[in-house]
Backbone:
């Protein structure tokens, strides 16, 4: 029995290493944010505020309990930005890439850990994948930063240095789906400015596609019939969710004077589209979330919970997981013997993985909502919104986060951590730790429905 147990222990190790690396990075970030130099004069972060902010930044969530632009000093903002970049790229992926650049070779354990975090094909392609991820990150963030810097300098009379800092900060925050902004109202002041909102939306969408999808689209963008099932599912799912989300929120908020109703019709289309992009786990708010119609909250809950593509900078259940569940339902309703998705047949192990991830995610959201409701007298719809936003690493808020008691904020901290690592850790564990039974139990069918 020692052989199988040793094998399971080795295969499960990457997930533990990734979790430990993220926890260590959060600890370092918390300590740095507790330093007096990290806050502006007259402010001093508590342990909970520093821990919450560090976790939110590293888990690329965007939830805040203090105003990023006024509470944190330039040093503190740099710490937050560094945590966002490390969290979006992946703690172990970044460490592996740096080790690769220095030593030019990787051990098997390091390769397995990097494969687990990046969803690479295998240990042999780790170097190629990490170089590709690094190149994509630099190109997208630099391009968006240039556009934003120019806009802030030319249209808002910001000094060159301030404009550059705004451009770089929001570019990195956008591509990593972090949602941190340097204004107290996030992007509300720029909601009608397409030169600010659209580049940030583009960065959010690209980061949410996932690095494997972006790398494949670089090579085969014009040949969709050669795309892998993962790429096809993510691209189609992203387009559908963006269109449905933007159209629904725009329609629901069209006449709401506290949100879209304050703009002229053409501007409402831009504001509505941007508001539909943000639940893709981005976290910027271009309208007052607390003033939205409760039906809009529900739509946003669904969009946040589904999330983005796997192996990217976004969170949530993941588009692929949701798509698998959807096609399982379709196959069952049609009476098919196999589940087919985009002309490919899904293995039964994929069915089990999707169902497991979905049910555990629902259980976590429900339990956390219940616990926070016991601690506060906040309405269910607001608490549920906050919980899903934290679990899916979105960062959108109805405005209650900063007013929650410390214990409830710590629940959100745990949700952000699990939400960022859960899909990776659980997915790798399910994929790598399969054993082979030497016997089968007798079948018996319970009554369903």
Residues:
């Amino acid at each position: 029995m020692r052989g199988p147990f040793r094998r399971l222990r080795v295969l499960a190790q990457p997930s533990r290493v990734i979790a430990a690396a993220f926890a260590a990075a959060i600890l370092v970030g918390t300590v740095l944010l507790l330093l007096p130099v990290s806050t502006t004069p007259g402010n001093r972060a508590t342990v909970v505020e520093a821990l919450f902010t560090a976790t939110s930044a590293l888990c690329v969530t965007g939830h805040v309990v203090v105003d990023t632009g006024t509470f944190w000093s330039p040093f503190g903002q740099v710490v937050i930005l560094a945590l966002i970049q490390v969290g979006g790229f992946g703690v172990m992926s970044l460490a592996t890439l740096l080790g690769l650049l220095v030593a030019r070779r990787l051990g098997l354990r390091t390769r397995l850990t990097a494969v687990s975090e990046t969803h690479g094909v295998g240990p042999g392609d780790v170097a190629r994948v990490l170089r590709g991820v690094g190149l994509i990150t630099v190109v997208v963030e630099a391009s968006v930063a240039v556009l934003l810097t120019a806009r802030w300098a030319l249209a808002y009379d910001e000094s060159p240095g301030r404009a550059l800092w705004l451009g770089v900060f929001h570019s990195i925050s956008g591509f990593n789906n972090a949602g941190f902004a340097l204004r107290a109202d996030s992007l509300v002041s720029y909601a009608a400015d397409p030169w600010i909102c659209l580049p940030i939306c583009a960065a959010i969408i690209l980061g949410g596609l996932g690095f494997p999808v972006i790398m494949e689209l670089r090579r085969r963008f014009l040949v969709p019939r050669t795309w892998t099932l993962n790429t096809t599912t993510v691209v189609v799912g992203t387009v559908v969710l963006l269109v449905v989300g933007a159209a629904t929120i725009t329609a629901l908020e069209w006449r709401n004077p506290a949100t879209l109703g304050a703009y002229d019709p053409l501007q409402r289309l831009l504001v509505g589209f941007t508001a539909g992009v943000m639940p893709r786990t981005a976290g910027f708010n271009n309208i007052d979330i607390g003033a939205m119609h409760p039906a809009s909250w529900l739509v946003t809950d669904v969009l946040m919970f589904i999330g983005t593509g796997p192996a990217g900078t976004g969170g949530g259940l993941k588009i692929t997981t949701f798509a698998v569940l959807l096609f399982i339902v379709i196959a069952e309703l049609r009476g098919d013997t196999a589940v087919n998705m985009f002309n490919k047949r899904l293995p039964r192990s994929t069915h089990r993985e999707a169902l497991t991830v979905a049910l555990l995610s629902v259980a976590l959201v429900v339990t956390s909502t219940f616990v926070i409701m016991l601690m506060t007298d906040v309405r269910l719809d607001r608490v549920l919104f906050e919980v899903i936003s934290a679990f899916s690493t979105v960062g959108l808020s109805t405005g209650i986060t900063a007013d929650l008691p410390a214990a409830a904020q710590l629940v959100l901290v745990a949700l952000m951590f699990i939400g960022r690592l859960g899909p990776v850790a659980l997915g790798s564990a399910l994929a790598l730790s399969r054993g082979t039974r030497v016997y089968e139990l007798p079948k018996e069918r319970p009554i369903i429905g």
Summary: The chain is about 65% helix and 0% strand. The longest strand covers residues 340-341. The radius of gyration is 22 Å. Confidence is low (pLDDT under 50) at residues 4-12, 98-104.
